[in-house]
Q: What sequence folds into this?
């Protein structure tokens, strides 16, 4: 589970604003631009940042699920998209979808879309690993007080629900329910009691939690903040690097070099030297938190200084 | 003028025809320790919530009468000021924690009060030291034990510097050690800081003597208010269960001042029995154990011997041989467990948290698969069988009855266990409902029942399958004294029907009442196994209150009834009629 656990790591020591800006630039870049090399320039620092946060092993474990999703997105794309000019396979005529055609362009397009999905998922994982939900609650509560509490509680509730599900599943097994026998319909049917128990318990627990929050004065007026909220040099470094990368992404977007022509035939990947330089700089700027994290763990002097 | 003044308070929960509180009148003085007692569902929690300003504010519903705090009607207090003055703690720590680390959880309420950062830091540091939580300051909430979680909640509430602390069964989810630690803190807060405390608690033996006044509630009304001593004299037979065991013993034989603690009880006992038996004021340590029983040999051998002497060797209903289990990637947490269970017996398994008690039950019922050893059911090897395959022969009742309940009515819930087995004949449902006193509640949604009633419904789902072996994990958790007594009677009935019952519990008084055989586990092993008297009387920690009272006088005394009879017998020798 990608749950925040407090540890002595650089990325967790950053302010909410710094880490959110960093992640927002990466996710924004992946959503707005779909040049394969830009996506690589976003993905590489992101994966290294996951490693710096100690989440690479968990990320790798969930990679198989991501790959299935990427594969599904490719299949959907191939099925509905017939725009490519380089036909690899001419299949049969399918009802509703028409002729099934696999083109090199649609295949590549699906791959790039999957890569964008992977970046968004990975950014979400990094968010959970490095951003203290309590700090996030404080930061977001200023803007969206009710929604922030809801999100914070939801994030906290997920592992509890996991434990509760395990417990309830054991009980239903002891009552004689078999989750693993019978056809698919039977198996789904056998899990219904479990889901009912889970929902009912979650609903009851939420009342108790609500009482506790109210009794401790939540929502009784403006809140103060326990955390140190003044940024440190490390935050300025990460913010500057993130904003620099954002400017370069914007530049690519405005110049039209952040996109890539897939159809009807794929265009060349590199249009200009400036484009390549921008991509390299984006990658390097987004690597700043990773490099600082590495230095932070190696040199105490740097740790104290930033 | 009292700090709290409750005048003719009546409250109806939304869509309920019966009031939860009926014309309650009560005054709580500043610095007082009030113990609020009563059966489950009598309105204790509702009154506590009303005092905290949560009723009707949080739940809605209709309210009559008035509560004044510090002379001002509660409704006129603004939420922030009231939260600053009145702190409340509920039963389950899991449902009170909001943040992810200890430090942040404590700071949560202070942030809500809008205190400056320096003030918050000072208060957080203070309560961390007070509750010895400094080492856990940056610890994730998920990694804490139940006792630590409840301590964090108490620290978080106290950091807000309330004048009043309201506690709704704060120890109901804790083991005895953690519960005692929490109660010690609460007592200290009252004694040393003069904090007003209103405590709802089922562990009467642990908190009755701490109170300045006891308030007994019944069916939404206040039945009695007075000092603990007055409560003892007033209680009569109807309310005797709301007294600690020591007081129950002496109330029967003394017209004067009735002791409330073991220390006072031993003094009284010494005075009463001085002519015939010398009673030391301090509790003598148990004598060296003559027969230390390991691997459950003594009990099983002796019971087996008696069965052999009767002419036939009975195959055990259930047997484990050299059972060992480890969770993935961990060391063995069960080692060399040899256990034999025969028909018609109640076996209690005691031990500290993490001793392997619940793991043992889960191995037996098939939820966990042992890595070592074998399990036999009436001679048949059932090692590795799944729980669903064993569910008709071995019934397992977990700690939380909510995990069972999802059907619309009590009757459907109990019948569900037959229906999933494809049974057409549901005639066994009725006797089970009757046995558990659930017939009148058959059409009620089980989720709307009280804790004790839910526990009985969960028990019904197990009994309807008519299993030979019943495994009960902490069956008394959250039950009031009267319900515990009913559970004792139920287990005795089931025992006489030939069931073999194994219960894991921390409730020593309950074990003293119900068990025939007691097993003590430590670090995954059985360290003691024998008859109830043999094990409990030889134990310093695992001894019921009445046994400790009589230690040095008579080791065989386990229950209040035993105690009363023994004293009457001894006094009869001195003062024959």
A:
């Amino acid at each position: 589970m990608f749950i925040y656990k407090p540890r002595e790591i650089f990325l967790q020591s950053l302010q909410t604003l710094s880490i959110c800006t960093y992640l927002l630039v990466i996710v924004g870049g992946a959503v707005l631009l779909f040049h394969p090399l830009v996506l690589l320039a976003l993905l590489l620092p992101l994966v290294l940042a996951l490693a710096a946060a100690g989440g690479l092993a968990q990320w790798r474990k969930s990679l198989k699920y991501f790959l299935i999703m990427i594969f599904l997105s490719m299949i959907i794309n191939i099925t509905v998209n017939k725009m490519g000019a380089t036909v690899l396979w001419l299949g049969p005529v399918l009802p509703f979808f028409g002729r099934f055609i696999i083109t090199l362009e649609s295949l590549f397009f699906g791959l790039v879309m999957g890569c964008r999905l992977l970046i968004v998922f990975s950014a979400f994982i990094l968010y959970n690993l490095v951003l203290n939900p309590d700090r996030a609650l404080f930061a977001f509560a200023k803007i969206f007080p009710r929604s922030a509490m809801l999100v914070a509680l939801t994030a906290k509730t997920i592992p509890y629900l996991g434990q509760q599900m395990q417990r309830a599943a054991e009980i239903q097994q002891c009552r004689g329910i078999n989750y693993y026998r019978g056809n698919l319909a039977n198996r789904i049917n056998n899990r219904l009691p479990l889901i009912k128990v889970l929902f009912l318990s979650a609903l009851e627990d939420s009342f108790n939690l609500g009482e506790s929050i109210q009794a401790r004065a939540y929502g009784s007026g403006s809140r103060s903040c326990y955390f140190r909220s003044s940024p440190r040099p490390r935050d300025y470094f990460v913010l500057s690097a993130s904003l620099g990368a954002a400017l370069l992404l914007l530049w690519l977007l405005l110049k039209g070099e952040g996109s890539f022509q897939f159809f009807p035939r794929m265009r060349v990947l590199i249009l200009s030297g400036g484009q390549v330089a921008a991509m390299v700089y984006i990658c390097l700027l987004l690597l700043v938190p990773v490099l600082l994290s590495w230095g932070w763990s190696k040199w105490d002097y740097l740790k104290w200084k930033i | 003028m009292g700090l709290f003044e409750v005048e003719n308070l009546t409250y109806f929960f939304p869509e309920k025809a019966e009031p939860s509180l009926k014309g309650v009148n009560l005054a709580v003085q500043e610095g007082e320790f009030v113990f609020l007692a009563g059966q489950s569902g009598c309105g204790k929690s509702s009154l506590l919530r009303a005092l905290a300003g949560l009723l009707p504010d949080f739940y809605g519903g209709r309210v009559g009468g008035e509560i004044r705090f510090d002379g001002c009607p509660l409704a006129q207090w603004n939420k922030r000021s009231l939260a600053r003055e009145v702190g409340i703690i509920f039963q389950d720590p899991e449902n009170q924690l909001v943040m992810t680390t200890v430090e942040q959880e404590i700071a949560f309420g202070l942030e809500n009060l809008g205190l400056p950062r320096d003030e918050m830091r000072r208060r957080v540091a203070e309560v961390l030291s007070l509750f010895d939580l400094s080492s856990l300051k940056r610890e994730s909430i998920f990694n804490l034990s139940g006792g630590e979680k409840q301590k964090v909640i108490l620290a978080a509430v106290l950091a807000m510097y309330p004048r009043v602390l309201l506690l709704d069964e704060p120890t109901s989810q804790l083991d005895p050690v953690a519960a005692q630690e929490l109660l010690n803190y609460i007592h200290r807060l009252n004694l040393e800081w003069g904090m007003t405390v209103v405590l709802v608690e089922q562990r009467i033996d642990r908190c009755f003597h701490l109170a300045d006044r006891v308030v007994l509630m019944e069916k939404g009304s206040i039945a009695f208010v007075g000092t603990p001593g007055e409560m003892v004299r007033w209680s009569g037979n109807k309310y005797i269960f709301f007294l600690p065991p020591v007081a129950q013993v002496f109330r029967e034989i003394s017209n004067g001042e009735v002791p409330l603690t073991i220390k006072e009880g031993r003094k009284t006992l010494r005075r009463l029995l001085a002519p015939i038996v010398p009673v030391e004021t301090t509790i003598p340590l148990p004598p060296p154990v003559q027969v230390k029983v390991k691997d459950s040999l003594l009990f099983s051998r002796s019971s087996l011997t008696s069965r052999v002497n009767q002419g036939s060797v009975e195959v055990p209903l259930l047997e484990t041989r050299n059972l060992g289990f480890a969770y993935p990637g961990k060391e063995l947490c069960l080692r060399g467990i040899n256990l034999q269970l025969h028909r018609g017996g109640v076996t209690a398994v005691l031990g500290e948290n993490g001793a392997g008690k619940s793991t043992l039950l889960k191995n037996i019922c098939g939820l966990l698969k042992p890595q070592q050893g074998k399990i036999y059911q009436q001679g048949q090897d059932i090692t590795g069988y799944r729980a669903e395959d064993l569910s008709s022969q071995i019934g397992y009742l977990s700690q939380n009855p909510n995990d069972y309940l999802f059907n619309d009515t009590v009757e459907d819930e109990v019948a569900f266990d037959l229906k999933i087995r494809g049974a057409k004949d549901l005639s066994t449902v009725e006797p089970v409902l009757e046995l558990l006193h659930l017939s009148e509640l058959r059409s009620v949604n089980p989720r709307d029942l009280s804790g004790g009633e839910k526990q009985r419904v969960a028990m019904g789902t197990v009994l309807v399958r008519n299993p030979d072996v019943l495994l009960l994990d902490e069956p008394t958790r959250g039950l009031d004294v009267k319900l515990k007594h009913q559970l004792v009677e139920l287990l005795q009935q089931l025992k006489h029907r030939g069931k073999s019952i194994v219960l894991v519990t921390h409730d020593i008084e309950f074990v003293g009442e119900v068990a025939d055989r007691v097993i003590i586990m430590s670090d995954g092993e059985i360290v003691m196994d024998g008859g109830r008297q043999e094990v409990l009387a030889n134990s310093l920690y695992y001894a019921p209150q009445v046994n400790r009272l009589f230690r040095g006088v008579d080791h065989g005394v386990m229950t209040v009834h035993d105690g009363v009879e023994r004293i009457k017998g001894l006094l009869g020798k001195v003062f024959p009629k």
